[in-house]
Amino acid sequence: MGIREFYFLVLIFTQSLLVYVEAQTNNLDVSALKALQDAWMGTPPSWDGLDPCGNPPWEGIGCTNSRITSITLASMGISGRLTGDIASLTELRTLDLSNNKGLSGNIPPSIGNLKKLSILLMEGCSFSGEIPDTFGSLEQLVTLSLTSNDLTGPIPPSLGNLKMLHWLDVAENRLTGTIPVSTATSPGLDQLVNTKHFHFGGNQLSGTIPPTLFNSNMTLIHLLFENNQLTGSIPSTIGLLRNLEVLRLDRNRLSGTVPPNISNLLSVHEFYLSSNQLTGPIPNIEKLTSMISLDLSNNSFDTTSFPSWYSSLSSLMTLAMENTQLIGEVPAALFSIPRLQSVVLRNNKLNGTLDLGSGPSSQLQLVDLQNNSIGGYTERPDQRNLPIILVENPVCEGVDRSYCRPLQSNPSYSTPPNNCIPLTCSNDQVSSPNCQCAYPFTGNITLRAPSITGLGSSSLYSSLESSIMSNFTSYGLPVDSVSIRNPIRNTDNYLILQLGFFPLDTDRFNRTGVYMTAFALNNQTYKPPDIFGPYIFSGEQYNHFQGAGSGSSKSNTGIIIGAAVGGFVLVVLAILAGVYAFRQKKRAEKADKQNNPFALWNPDKSSGSIPQLKGTKPFTFEEMRKYSNNFSEVNDIGTGGYGKVYRGTLPDGKMIAIKRAMKGSMQGAIEFKSEIELLSRVHHKNVVSLVGFCFDQSEQMLVYEYIPNGTLKDSLSGQSGFRLDWARRLRIALGSARGLQYLHELADPPIIHRDIKSNNILLDDRLNAKVADFGLSKAIGNPDQTHITTQVKGTMGYMDPEYYMTNQLTDKSDVYSFGVTLLELVTAKQPIEKGKYIVREVRERMDKTKVLYNIQEVIDPFLLGTALDGFEKFVDVALRCVMETGADRPTMGQVVKEIENIMQLAGLNPDVESTATSANYEWTSQGFNHPYNDESLFMYSGAFPRSSLEP
Question: Quick check: helix, strand or coil at residue 713?
């Protein structure tokens, strides 16, 4: 009970005249917000006191005339559930809870009572269950974004009632069923004539695209249905959408011919029909002169020569017609389109002589004609540096020319300094593009339909940076500069960029600066240039806020009580004050027990709250300080998003690694305790051992055995100082497989690791493999349980696609990740390098009739020229591990047996170590990132790995 409710009860009891001197916020609004605060963890420190609309107001709260009208808390690290109390905020117009991964559970149907709600943003959270049908009651709604949650069930037909809706985004969930259209008794999406954005990609929608979904009154500009399970033909009514700019129907099961009136889409500039089952003639798009990016690949169109309509597409930048039954010569005039960057015509029957003409586009970055029948190439002197790929054409038979080799990976990109010298910063700060040390607010922007080729060029990224800054400046956002780093393309061919926003005139943001910046991106206030297309922004939790005030502490003693009832009022006040104090004390005790379950531990008693530790020791803070020499710099062996790692020595001389979490990244105590109990049960020579932990003086630390030789990733990338020959790679594969088999089959309870990768396999002083980092692991409580429904977490490139699509986590998800790691052992490449996925690269190049399966181009050059006994069988095992469905993959026990057999065929004893110490390996150590440097138990959990803007 809040103090305002306390005064309200006094009024009822006394029936006297009470005068509020400083009251601002409506009492019902205060009660609702307090209830939400009780259900959430991580609310801003300013959420204290009695008046959310006071001066200053609570952070993230906007008010009009004593009523709460906006809640904007994007990327604030809030966790808990959204309760039905939200419905009491009847004047609410804006609700932005985006990118708070800890917000979970069902969306309460009572949210439909917020009749004045205009903007509803809940993207990038962990909400589950169905989209409430009551959303159809939000008649003032303009923006609805629920992308990147865990929502299931159908799209509610009631959304058709939202006549003012401009932006509808429910992408990247697990929605099923058909696309709802109106009937005589039910509304449907065809009634959304004012909506400009339909974003439904990355779900499991099925059935046909209803012809009645589209009509000439609609104002749609973005229609995104990619990566679903839609069937049937493309309806001709889609030609009625005269304003359409982006059309994505790729990666469905659409069939039949493309309707001729698709040529009516005169404004379309992004057109994707790839990876369907379309037949008939290639569509005539001669009239679509605004076309920037066209992809018709992987369909079953009629065999035809190269279409002539390309000559009218003067704005074309990318053209993809892979596997579309093209024959004949590629016209030289194609390459003279002024803005053309990329032409991908692989896997067709093109022939004749390739001629780019005398004046190809100056922006040309890629001409990929692999696997055709081209017999000649007219190479002009000024074209020798152009990226032409003619591999697997007759012209390349017995020829070693640059165009007969695979294209090298695109270079990475990082925003350069703005005519200044970058600073060396401390305390986890980063030098901004303007060379100022600061703590940036970071996040990923996923571009859904970019027209740029590959990973783009520095000039394009510079253009995007300038565009963002210009927009932010016009809105008065406190941002000094923007940086872009590490562009990659994911398996959906979306371009993902790491963004960093640096604060203006200070070294860190306050909460207002972060949620304003996030809101501008979440609400699509910022519009990127057309070539970048629509986007999703996923902001990360910010842990470096300026010191927040304690909120309003105004005096609430301005109450005048009539003398006639003074004595009675004092008695009532005393009684109610006692009740209030008692309830507050109970609440505090309950919160303390929830937040600090360690307080219940009593080593002398047996209780369910006592950790079931096996071989794991609790340490005090003073012990940790002593063993690390007061956390000295000389013992600082790594830094990550969670804090720092220190080398230490126990009194018995044993070396340890101490992971010390910084305040902003610490787990809840319950989660911390649960993971300690889990890790204390794990004992295997191929799994990193937990020595102990510290939960003392508001500190969280984990104490591991010290692993001296870094990660497998370090060794494969050349950073660890050791070259790994084929025999050692087989032993590392076997050791890590045995460690993973132990977790799946012998640990009690069994454990699914959920983040197997080369960075989580460590090498000890004898180069034995040890599986590490259980920050995302899940224990299987029921031995008979076959799957666990979870929020998808892991690392891009290693993640099981079946787990990603269904959220059903099984031990076969680990098997998939392990298969990717085996391919890393073969290639020494990261799973995704410059937009290329190693699984796909190996599969596409494989030819089992040839030596080494003909994948020499992707094998680690260090291995070539050496004896690779059992290589083909090893690749077979890896590829079985990365089969699309878990049922087709082996168990880890089967993988262990197969690797043991491969080693025996190679003349190696699986049970004998061949290396006395790592010093036996010839390469001189050059220094490397310590295995505890980047990821830990305290790592960020999400669909994508935690980004960093450190140089």
Answer: helix
Q: How far apart are CA 540 and CA 903, in angstroms?
A: 44
Distance CA 293, CA 298 (A): 16
The mean of the pLDDT values for the chain is: 81
- pTM, two decimal places: 0.56
585, with CB counted inside 10 A (0-12, 13-18, 19+), is: exposed
Pairing of strands 636-640, 643-649: antiparallel
Nearest to 871 by CA among 885, 860, 886, 882: 860
Q: Looking at 96, 755, 764, 814, which residue is catalytic?
A: 755
Token pair in block for residue 424? 């060396």
Q: Which residues contact 191 (CB under 8 A, 6 or more apart)?
A: 160, 161, 163, 182
- Tally helices (H) and strands (E) across the chain: 14, 49
pLDDT surpassing 70 at residue 920: no
| Distance, CA of 769 to CA of 742 (rounded, Å) | 13
Mean pLDDT of 186-210: 96
- Which residue is associated with the tokens 């990566």? 227
Q: Among 358-362, 438-442, 731-735, 853-857, whose mean pLDDT is lowest? A: 358-362
Burial 421-441 (b: 16+ CB within 10 A, else e): ebeebeebbbbbbeebbbbbb
In this structure, what are the phi and psi dihedrals at residue 374, rounded to the nearest 5 degrees? -75, 125
pLDDT of residue 878: 96
What pLDDT is stored for residue 528 in this prediction?
74
From first CA to last CA, the distance across the chain in angstroms is: 50
Q: What digits encode the pLDDT tens for the residues 6-55?
A: 333 333 333 233 223 333 788 888 888 988 998 999 999 889 877 899 88
- Give, to the nearest 10 degrees, the angle between helix 726-741 and helix 811-827: 170
In this prediction, residue 85 carries a pLDDT of 87
C-alpha distances (whole Å) from 5 to each of 8, 158, 166, 581, 637 are 5, 37, 39, 14, 53
Q: Phi-psi region for residue 596, left (φ > 0), alpha (ψ -120 to 50) or beta?
A: beta
The Cα 496–Cα 162 span in angstroms is 32
In the residue annotation, 755 being an active-site residue is answered as: yes
Mean pLDDT, residues 823-841 taken together: 89
Whether the Cβ atoms of residue 407 and residue 342 lie closer than 8 Å to each other: no
The token pair at 607 is 């209780």
Any idea what DSSP says for residue 508? S
Which pLDDT value is given to residue 561? 39
Domain 712-920 has CATH 2.60.40.1120: no
String of DSSP letters for 209-275: --GGG--TT---SEEE--SSEEEEPPPGGGGG-TT--EEE--SSEEEEPPPGGGGG-TT--EEE--S
| Partners of residue 711 on adjacent β-strands | 762
**Number of residues that make up the chain:** 951
C-alpha radius of gyration, the chain, whole number? 31
CATH class, range 617-705: alpha beta
The two structure tokens encoding residue 42:
């991580």
Instruction: Show me where the domains of the chain are located.
Output: 430-539, 617-705, 712-920
Fold of 430-539: Alpha-Beta Plaits (3.30.70)
User: Is 915 in contact with 921 (CB distance < 8 Å)?
Assistant: yes
